[in-house]
Write a structure and sequence with these properties.
- This protein is of the alpha+beta class.
- The chain has helices at 17-30, 37-54, 100-107, 130-133; strands spanning 7-13, 61-69, 72-79, 110-115, 120-127.
- It has a five-stranded antiparallel sheet with strand order 1-2-3-5-4, with helices on one face.
- The radius of gyration is 15 Å and the shape is globular.
């Protein structure tokens, strides 16, 4: 499979955060990236929960995509709600919400949001040791471009 771009996309029913987490975990096992399951599952949970809580009126589904590039796992969560872009907040000790992107920010090398038509995609980069790439069942995408 050398030289092929390897990307996996899932269309998830909007209110099924556990289904999203299950797909992510199964794919990471298949790709032999068990070392990332805990962190990627948490990031996927936080980003998909944001879709469920904040992306109102966007239809019944959202999309998740995973790919590897240069010893980095890239997770993308896309929805069709374009009016509210996620922002990193600084919740107070007594606040009951607003910590999802704080968690994402602490676990990821970098993350961000980009518009799409319609909606937006929130992406996150989670690096892994280069020697892990040698054990992948596919050749990671090699690219000098950015997300």
């Amino acid at each position: 499979m050398s030289g092929r771009t390897h990307i996996k996309r899932f269309r998830i029913r909007k209110h099924s955060v556990p289904e999203a987490r299950h797909h992510v975990q199964a794919l990471l096992r298949q790709w032999r990236l068990g070392c990332l399951i805990e962190d990627v599952s948490l990031v996927a949970t936080e980003l998909t929960t944001n879709v469920v809580q904040h992306a109102r009126g966007t239809g019944d589904f959202f999309d998740i995509a995973l790919r590897c590039r240069d010893s980095v796992l890239i997770l993308e969560v896309s929805d069709s709600f374009r009016w509210k872009m996620p922002e990193l907040m600084k919740p107070g000790d007594d606040d009951t919400g607003g910590r999802g992107l704080v968690i994402v920010d602490s676990l990821c090398e970098k993350w961000g949001v980009r518009p799409r038509d319609p909606g937006k995609t929130v992406w996150a980069h989670l690096p892994f040791a280069p020697e892990v790439s040698a054990g992948l069942p596919f050749a990671p995408e090699v690219s000098a471009g950015s997300t």
